[in-house]
Amino acid sequence: MYAIIAGREPSRSWLFQALYPIKKLDIMAHSMYSLKAMDEEDIIFGTHTLAEQKLVVVFSLKGKMAEVDMGFLDGVYVNLMDHSEVTINGGKLQLNSGPVIIGILE
Predict the structure, then answer these.
(1) Which pTM value belongs to this model?
(2) Cα–Cα distance for residue pair 63/48, rounded to 1 Å
(3) Can you give the three-state secondary structure of 55-75, one letter per residue?
(4) How many C-beta atoms lie closer than 10 Å to residue 28's C-beta?
(5) What is the DSSP letter of 11?
(6) Going residue by residue through the chain (106 aa), what tens digit of pLDDT does each one get?
(7) Which member of 12, 66, 87, 97 has the greatest number of CB atoms within 10 A?
């Protein structure tokens, strides 16, 4: 995901491009927000809640893999960061190195 050019810091423009449409969602402006650190795995877990809508952000501070309890029903969801499919099984997500943002936004 990162482009390393001649010893410079990796480009994070992909991150800003991915987050731009997410930050425009109504839930981002009007939700209750909670943030939790999972110290043992170096994971950050954030939740936006607005009525029946829910948006969950989870990422590793150190790019570690981890199994994270998401509080979602089992199924296949779309990661709003890169539009890839992520699977929740047994209420848990197998987090790889990249950030995941999934939501129930109806």
Answers:
(1) 0.78
(2) 23
(3) EEEEEECCCCCEEEECCCCCE
(4) 14
(5) P
(6) 444 445 555 566 777 788 888 888 888 888 999 999 987 778 999 999 999 999 999 999 888 888 998 888 999 999 998 899 999 999 999 998 789 999 887 6
(7) 66
